[in-house]
Write a structure and sequence with these properties.
This protein has 584 residues and is of the alpha+beta class. Helix content is 29%, strand content 19%. It is built from 19 helices and 20 strands. The longest helix has 22 residues, at 212-233. The radius of gyration is 23 Å and the shape is globular.
C-alpha cells in the first residue's frame, strides 16, 4: 500500500494539539453508534488540519513487524514448489478447481498464498519484507491464527496455531482434546477448519495516530480477501462467521490471556472464517453456536513485546474498538437474486489471461509512483470493475465469503481509458442502489450509461473533464492519484449500515473496502500494471467532488491503478531461503 507520508509527517497543528489533549470521544452515556460517528468525524483529514498523529517518526519505538510466542512449539511448513500452473482466471471458476485434501502441504500452500512473505526489498543496508496481504505503510497490524484438526506432520491432536510469516511456520499455542475439537466443529461440515484474524493497533498508531483504527480495518479486509483467494486456489470455500462475538473469538485464539501478554502489545480479535471443501448455504449454526474455550485447555507461549516503549497513548482507538465489538448474533442473510449473472457482467466468461494464480498472488506489489502516460483498454477497465460485483447464485468469489449486500460503491476519477471520456464516473456495486446514489450525489451530474459497457455493470458517466488535479488534491495532494489510468473513492452507505446492523458493522464497512482493494491489486497484476491503496484523503472534500452533502454517506478508502514507475535504487530478494529450508 502507498506510504501515506502526508498523514504522518505533517507538523502537528494547534488544532491537532487540542485533539491530542482530549482523552475521550464523547462524555456521558453515549451509544456505540454515537461513539462511531464521533470517531469517524474526529479522524477525518481536512485541508486545514490532518487527523491527530504524533507528527514525526519515533524510530526508537518502531514496532517489530513479527509477533512470536516464546515457548510455543514452532512447526515449519514445507515451502510449496514454485511454478504451480493454475491460471489466475480459474480462481473465479471455483467449480473447476478440484478440492485439495487437508494436509500439511495444502495448509502450507494456503498460508503461502494468504499471509506469507513474498519478497524482501533492500536499499543500502536497510531491508524490509513484503507480504501477500497488503498493509498500510507496510506496517502489518494483522495477525493470523488457525484452529486445525490432527494432521500428519503437523500434530497428533487438534490445536490452536499462530501463523509466523517470517518463518512460514505455525506456532502451536494450545492442544485441544478430541471432545473439545468435536464441540467446536459440530455445527460444520466434515473436514472443516477455522482461521481467525486479529489486529495489533499499536503497529499502525505508531505512525498514523488516531486514524490507525481505520487502517487496521482496511488491512483486515485485505487479509480476508487474501484468505478467500488462497482457499479458491485449493478448491476450498470460505465463509465469514459473522455471528461470533469478539469475546468468544478472543478466547478461542488465546488473546484474552493476560499472562501471555504481560509486557506485550495486546491484539484485538477481528473475525473468524470457516474453511471447507464445500458447505450448504446458508450455513445453519444457530442451534450449536461456537463457544469460548474452557479452563481445561493448556496454553503455551508468551507474546513478544513489539516496541521497547510507547511514546504516546491513543485512548480514542481503545474507545472505538470497544464500541465496535460484536456480540453473539444471528448470521446476516440477504437476497442476492437481483444481481447480474456472470454472462451479464463479462459478456463471455473469462477463460484466459496473462498470469498464473501464483504469479498474481505472490507477485502483487504496491506501486509507489505512476508514469502519468499509460492508458488501459476499455475491456480491461470493464473487467476489473466487473470483478467487484457479486453475482446471482454463488455471488462469485470472493463475495461469497461475506453475507451482506454491497455497502461500498465507487466514485471514479477516469484519466486514461481508451474509448472512454476522462471524467467522473460512478459504479453502483448493488444494482438496487443506483437511484439512491443519484439522489445522494450532485444534481448537476448526467448519469449517462457508459457505451459498450456490459449490461450487468452499473457504471455511469457523471461528468466529462480532466479530473487529474482533483483526484490528486483530494488524496492529500498525492500525485499518484492523478498519474494512473484511473483512481477512485470507495463511498460507503454509512449511517444506514449502522442503523441496520449496529455499531460493530463499522468494521465490516472497512473490511468490504479492503476486499475491493485486494481484488483491484490482483486485477492490476493480471493486466500487467499496478495498483496502490491510498488511506490519506481529505474526507469531506471527496464528498464535495461527488456532490455528496449528506453525512449518511462517507468515503472509506481510495485506490489508484496504472502503469508503475519502478525505483531503481531497490533490490528484490527472495522471501525465503530455499536452501536453508531443505537443510532443516
Amino acid at each position: 500500500m502507498n506510504d501515506f507520508n502526508r498523514s504522518c509527517d505533517a507538523p502537528v497543528t494547534s488544532a491537532q494539539a487540542l485533539l491530542l489533549e482530549r482523552t475521550g470521544l464523547l462524555e456521558g452515556d453515549a451509544s456505540p453508534e454515537e461513539v462511531v460517528v464521533a470517531y469517524h468525524e474526529r479522524t477525518k483529514h481536512h485541508f486545514h488540519r490532518y487527523a491527530a498523529a504524533q507528527g514525526y517518526m519515533d524510530w526508537a519505538t518502531q514496532p517489530d513487524p513479527f509477533r512470536r510466542y516464546a515457548g510455543a512449539d514452532l512447526i515449519r511448513l514445507p515451502l510449496p514448489k514454485a511454478g504451480r500452473p493454475l491460471p489466475y482466471w480459474q480462481l473465479y471458476a471455483s467449480a473447476t478447481v478440484p478440492p485439495a485434501p487437508l494436509s500439511l502441504e495444502s495448509v502450507s500452500l494456503f498460508f503461502r498464498y494468504a499471509l506469507s512473505l513474498t519478497a524482501w526489498k533492500q536499499v543500502g543496508e536497510t531491508r524490509w519484507p513484503l507480504r501477500a496481504n497488503p498493509s498500510s505503510g507496510n506496517l502489518h497490524p494483522t495477525e493470523g491464527y488457525a484452529v486445525l484438526p490432527a494432521i500428519d506432520g503437523l500434530g497428533d491432536t487438534a490445536a490452536v496455531y499462530h501463523y509466523a510469516p517470517k518463518e512460514h511456520a505455525l506456532e502451536r499455542r494450545a492442544l485441544l482434546d478430541a471432545k473439545r475439537w468435536a464441540e467446536l466443529v459440530a455445527p460444520f461440515p466434515e473436514g472443516s477448519f477455522l482461521v481467525g484474524l486479529s489486529s495489533v493497533h499499536w503497529r499502525e498508531a505508531w505512525k498514523y495516530g488516531e486514524r490507525a483504527f481505520r487502517y487496521c480495518q482496511h488491512d483486515v479486509g485485505h487479509a480476508l480477501a487474501s484468505l478467500r483467494i488462497a482457499a479458491a486456489a485449493l478448491g476450498w470455500r470460505l465463509l465469514l462467521l459473522d455471528g461470533v462475538s469478539n469475546s468468544t473469538l478472543s478466547s478461542l485464539l488465546g488473546l484474552d490471556r493476560d499472562e501471555d501478554f504481560a509486557a506485550a502489545e495486546r491484539e484485538e480479535a477481528e473475525l473468524l472464517v470457516l474453511i471447507a471443501s464445500d458447505f450448504p448455504m446458508p450455513l445453519a449454526t444457530e442451534s450449536k453456536p461456537l463457544t469460548a474455550h474452557g479452563a481445561g485447555v493448556l496454553w503455551q507461549g508468551r507474546a513478544n513485546a513489539l516496541s521497547p516503549e510507547h511514546s504516546i497513548a491513543w485512548p480514542v482507538i481503545d474507545e472505538i474498538a470497544q464500541a465496535t465489538r460484536c456480540c453473539e448474533s444471528s448470521p446476516i442473510q440477504e437476497d442476492f437474486s437481483g444481481f447480474p449473472s456472470e454472462d451479464q457482467l463479462f459478456g463471455t466468461p473469462v477463460c484466459q489471461g496473462l498470469l498464473s494464480a501464483e504469479k498474481a498472488i505472490l507477485g502483487r506489489r504496491s506501486a509507489v509512483a505512476m508514469d502519468s502516460s499509460t492508458a488501459i483498454s476499455r475491456a480491461v477497465f470493464f473487467r476489473m470493475l466487473a470483478r467487484l460485483i457479486p453475482t446471482q447464485g454463488q455471488r462469485s468469489m470472493p463475495w461469497d465469503a461475506i453475507p451482506w449486500r454491497p455497502r461500498i460503491h465507487l466514485g471514479l476519477f477516469v484519466h486514461r481509458v481508451d474509448g472512454l471520456a476522462p471524467g467522473l464516473y460512478a459504479l453502483a456495486r448493488d444494482p438496487e442502489k443506483v437511484e439512491t446514489l443519484k439522489a445522494v450525489m450532485g444534481s448537476e451530474f448526467g448519469w449517462q450509461r457508459v457505451p459498450h459497457c456490459p449490461p450487468g455493470l452499473p457504471l455511469y458517466l457523471l461528468q466529462e473533464g480532466d479530473c487529474r488535479a482533483l483526484a490528486s488534491t483530494v488524496s492529500c495532494g498525492q500525485e499518484i492519484a492523478g498519474d494512473g489510468a484511473f483512481s477512485l473513492a470507495m463511498i460507503a452507505d454509512y449511517r444506514d449500515s449502522l442503523a441496520t446492523y449496529g455499531a460493530a458493522f463499522y468494521r465490516n464497512l472497512f473490511w468490504e473496502a479492503g476486499m475491493v482493494g485486494q481484488l483491484l491489486y490482483l486485477e492490476a497484476e493480471e493486466a500487467g500494471i499496478r495498483a496502490t491503496g491510498i488511506g490519506c484523503y481529505f474526507d469531506d472534500p471527496v464528498h464535495t467532488a461527488f456532490g455528496i452533502v449528506s453525512r449518511e454517506w462517507q468515503s472509506f478508502y481510495h485506490f489508484t491503478v496504472g502503469a508503475p514507475v519502478e525505483d531503481g535504487r531497490l533490490s528484490t530478494l527472495p522471501a525465503y531461503n530455499v536452501e536453508e529450508e531443505r537443510k532443516d
